[in-house]
Design brief:
The protein folds into three domains: 171 residues, Molybdenum Cofactor Biosythetic Enzyme, Chain A (3-Layer(aba) Sandwich); 78 residues, Alpha-Beta Plaits; 151 residues, CinA-like (Maf protein, Alpha-Beta Complex), CATH 3.90.950.20. Helices cover 41% and strands 25% of the residues. It is built from 14 helices and 17 strands. Helix 2 runs parallel beside helix 6 and helix 3 packs across helix 4. The longest helix has 19 residues. It starts with a strand and ends with a helix.
Length: 412
């Protein structure tokens, strides 16, 4: 089934809060065959909420609304949706008692009068119990379709989606149709170059949808199939078998696989240890590696040698190299990777140095110039790239590219 999401909150439109609920619900609904086809964000305005919910119901007959169920004056989702559907609101005694009991457990004194509005329920609605907060969810059937109201607090929204929304939608999926997806993660190739490489094979693939999803780390290819679970799986496996030969070594993982985890696992299988030397990334590579459980069995450690003098003192970089080629050069990064490998006694090593910006660039070395080196058992490979984007983008893309350089050097 197709459905829509309406996200409510002035704080979202003002940019003070980033919404995560749309991603949570969209992913949760995939296994039960429900597809989010549109998401609308509105402020705490009665007319805007009514129009967004009404339009969603007219298009798909099913809408999930996040936010605006709290006790304050700007929490008006409940009232707005009831008005749009022509349903009266009445205080549900059981809900009110639950809210009062919650306050008695967690706070001294009586429940604030403003929380009473959270016990108001539209006529004919089912209450979705919320053990994680004071605002219950509401499942509201009507002659125009179904509106499901859920608290906007991410923890509560996620819990009620899992406990109520998903089971009910699963029960409604009478034909056994599901949405099945698989993601192939690539790095080291741009979205346009990837699309060009895949143009011929994409024209031969049938029964699936393929989306290109660029990120700071690379480009994800998401394969999606609709239908019976077994048929969908076969369609995805067939598509993957056609894509893999073209993707080659650009593809490093599937699903949510992290490049750091891939590098660590490859080194673990080889019985090797890793050390890193970082300048412009300032420890991001080390942070990525240590996010992976069990990294200590492979990752020895690293050095952040930001200033030239620390490159000389801690990594043994020859001052003559820095004077001749500069800190951002392949000569320097090769000396850095050799130095960190020697200091830690590591068979594998990574080094990176660059100009992340927004200042510090020159005509010869503009902002975004980054040099990388990787070492495997004494052999060193290096490269220089110009990475576009903000300082944030350059640093994160540089960390990914440095790890990828080592990955491509390692034996399969």
């Amino acid at each position: 089934m197709d459905l829509e999401i309406v996200i409510v909150g002035n704080e979202l439109l003002l940019g003070f809060t980033n919404d995560t609920n749309i991603g949570e619900v969209a992913r949760a609904l995939i296994p039960v065959g429900a597809r989010v086809v549109r998401c609308t964000t509105v402020g705490d305005n009665r007319t805007d909420i009514r129009q967004a919910v009404g339009a969603a119901l007219d298009r798909t007959g099913f809408v999930v609304v996040s936010g605006g169920l709290g006790p304050t004056s700007d929490d008006i989702t409940r009232e707005s949706v009831a008005e749009e559907l022509g349903l009266a609101l009445t205080v549900d005694r059981a809900v009110l008692e639950d809210i009062e009991a919650r306050f008695a457990r967690y706070r001294p004194g009586p429940m604030p009068p403003s929380n009473r509005k959270q016990a108001e329920v539209p006529a004919g609605a089912d209450v979705l119990a919320n053990a994680h907060g004071s605002a219950p969810g509401l499942w509201i059937p009507s002659d125009r379709g179904t509106a499901v109201l859920l608290p906007g607090v991410p923890r509560e929204f996620r819990a009620l989606t899992a406990e109520h929304l998903v089971p009910r939608l699963r029960a409604m999926a009478v034909d056994g149709s599901v949405i099945t997806t698989k993601t192939l993660r690539t790095t080291g190739i741009s979205e346009s170059a990837l699309a060009d490489d895949l143009a011929d094979v994409l024209g031969t693939i049938r029964g699936v949808e393929i989306a290109f999803l660029p990120t700071l780390e690379g480009v994800d290819l998401r394969i999606t199939a609709h239908g019976a679970r077994a048929d969908s799986r076969r369609s995805i496996e067939s598509a993957e078998a056609q894509l893999r030969p073209v993707l080659g070594r650009h593809c490093y993982a599937t699903g949510e696989g992290d490049l750091a985890a891939v590098v660590l696992e490859r080194l673990r299988s080889l019985g090797a240890r890793l050390a890193v030397a970082e300048s412009c990334t300032g420890g991001l590579i080390g942070a990525r590696l240590t996010e992976i459980p069990g990294a200590s069995s492979v990752f020895l450690g690293g050095m952040v040698t930001y200033a030239d003098e620390t490159k000389v003192r801690d990594l043994g970089v020859d001052p003559a190299i820095l004077a001749r080629d500069g800190a951002v050069s392949e000569a320097t990064v090769r000396a850095m990777v050799a130095g960190v490998s020697d200091r830690f006694g590591a068979r594998a090593a990574i080094a990176v140095t660059g100009i992340a910006g927004p200042h510090g660039g020159t005509e010869d070395k503009p902002v975004g110039t980054v040099c990388f080196a990787a070492m495997w058992e004494g052999a060193v490979e290096s490269m220089k790239r110009h990475i576009p984007g903000s300082r944030y983008d350059v640093r994160r893309r540089a960390a990914q590219a440095a790890m990828d350089l080592l990955r491509r050097m390692l034996p399969e």
